[in-house]
Design goal:
With 145 residues, this protein is α/β, with parallel strands linked by helices. The protein has two helices and eight strands, in the order βαββββαβββ.
């Protein structure tokens, strides 16, 4: 593995007044073509678990899936913007883990998933691989450097 990049932590700064925005997490929402297919992929291929479901008029409209402390919300496209709308272009999720990314990549492939790139060491010390979900949303899974 590549040597780890040395980082220095900035000294604590006094809070600005008025205080600037401070967030604790982000839960992205992805509009998908086939909600059941996406659920199966995130659950059965990546290993997320279903957390919550949302129905509209008795029909599944969306759900959230969770892995560790990461939540991704999936919603069924209502096709109001057209059925030919491309998804996933110019968008990528970076997912960090303390787990062995080579083992994760191997498990994904064993479950029928396809990687866009095999695990590799990066100059800053992380090991990463890339894949895309059924709608083309790109994901990079990285060891925490």
């Amino acid at each position: 593995m590549s040597p780890q990049k040395k980082t220095t932590k900035k000294p604590a700064q006094p809070r600005k007044s008025p205080e600037t925005l401070r967030l604790r997490s982000v839960d992205p929402g992805l509009t998908v073509n086939d909600l059941q297919r996406s659920l199966a992929w995130y659950r059965d291929v990546l290993g997320f678990t279903e957390e919550e479901r949302w129905e509209h008029d008795g029909k599944l409209a969306g759900l959230s899936v969770v892995a560790g402390t990461v939540t991704i919300n999936l919603t069924q496209d209502d096709w109001a913007k057209g059925r030919d709308r491309k998804k996933g272009e110019g968008f990528r999720l970076y997912l960090n883990t303390v787990q062995d990314v080579d083992e994760i990549a191997a498990a994904i492939k064993a479950k029928g998933g396809t990687l866009l790139s095999e695990p590799k060491d990066m100059p800053w010390g992380a090991r990463v691989f890339q894949l895309a979900d059924p709608d083309g949303f790109k994901l990079t899974i990285s060891s925490i450097a």
